[in-house]
Write a structure and sequence with these properties.
- It is a multi-pass membrane protein.
- Keywords: Membrane, Mitochondrion, Repeat, Transmembrane, Transmembrane helix, Transport.
- InterPro entries: MCP_dom_sf, MCP_transmembrane, Mitochondrial_Carrier.
- This protein is mainly α and about 210 residues long.
- The protein has a single domain, classed as Mitochondrial carrier fold, CATH 1.50.40.
- Helix content is about 65%, strand content about 0%.
- Helix 1 crosses helix 4.
- The protein is elongated.
- The two termini are about 25 Å apart.
Amino acid sequence: MGDVAKDLTAGTVGGAAQLICGHPFDTIKVKLQSQPMPLPGQLPKYAGAFDAVKQTIAAEGPGGLYKGMGAPLATVAAFNALLFTVRGQLEGLLRSESGAPLTVSQQVVCGAGAGVAVSFLACPTELIKCRLQAQSALATSGPAAVAVVKSVLQVDDYKNPKFSGSVDAFRKILKSEGVKGLYKGFGPAMARSVPANAACFLAYEVTRSSLG
């Protein structure tokens, strides 16, 4: 197996593991962010994170903590493939000669370029995403397509669900709002992804070089 294939395989497995472990926490975060402001004299739906966990499990079972995970889990491989492919291509274009080390500015450009590409799949700033989603009747205004579907499933009413799953959510969003409905808030997605990936790869390269 080549180095690229190893990177993609390891990155995909690692990304899937991260998603499986972290998704329940993300679900609770989305529920807390998207709950409406209580009227004067009323208590909020969730008193806090632990209360949100308790209510979710009581109402929906443990599976309720994993609502909406299908779409991002299905794109883990594509995310890593796009990230490393774009970064690798940019490295090849910017190197003065084969095997030559990249300058700091070139490393930043490579990471930022990869960030632009993965913005089409990456989850954006969650608070902005949830606020955009909450203002729509279908809760379909999120910064990136996968993030939209994931979060509308997370905050969907378990008693009267609008969506039966990820595929159904994609279908209904496309039908009601078109392709543009999947990319509302794309600006915040890119605003986070570009500097985040630039910093990530820069730190990675600098640390690796320092360690010899």
